[in-house]
Design a protein that fits this description.
mainly alpha; two-stranded antiparallel sheet; 14 helices; 2 strands; 67% helix; elongated
Amino acid sequence: NNMLMGKVPVFWMAQPEWLVLVVASSLVTFYAWPLIEESWASAEVELMRPDTATGLVAFEGFEHWLENNGEFAQRLKRRCARSLKRSMGGAGSDGGSGGGGGVGNDQRAEAAPPVPPTPSLAPTPREIFAMADPQGRGVLEQAEVRRLLRRASFDSPLLYTVDAFCLSTFAIGAARMGINRGLHPLVCCAAGFTMAFGGMLRDLITRRDMVACGAESFALATGAGATVYVGLRQLMLRGWPLTMVFRTTASTATVLGLRYAEWVSDGSLLRPMFEN
């Protein structure tokens, strides 16, 4: 009761309409939007001319579809280029040595699952196909293709930009919540990092290949934005003429700057802990 309805009540307890808004937006985000994406992906799979008897997609149909979808093909190539870099990891240095690999290298090669060819900045259709077909069967199930298409849809520049601006509001909102409750500045800064916990949980539940605190660096962006906002507010309390507009703009610029750095670095701004 003290936490939710204390001196400064949590906003969605003081005004229940906020709770209704959160529930409604969650239904759209986690239920309606995935259904829309799934419907779109299913329509695109039909354009790949799957086998009428088995429903499997062959490489020829996948390649034909890729050649006739220029804008989305670029997004798919970008996504696969990131995944290829991560999956190859240190394998490039082992594979680059000529003959005489030694027993240890041979054992690792036999134990490792098949991997696509050495990644390039612009993966070929064959490399993209191999990402969804690591067993080398030569055909894909429709569910595998739909999963690949849905992942690539996250690389839309428009969605990425909107997402970056939303993260800036999360960073400022997290800092403001701590400030309004009179918490220590360090706790207010930490709130910016913990604000990304929902996104991390979403990535784990949906089995996305990029966890928020790793490659996509949601937590880094929101935490840095909140830290800038709290730091500038502390300076303002000590007499610096820093207006609310300036503090908000600086925090937003920090988040957008980190998200842009993540975009141009092809998802390698932060390395996941599972990489060698």
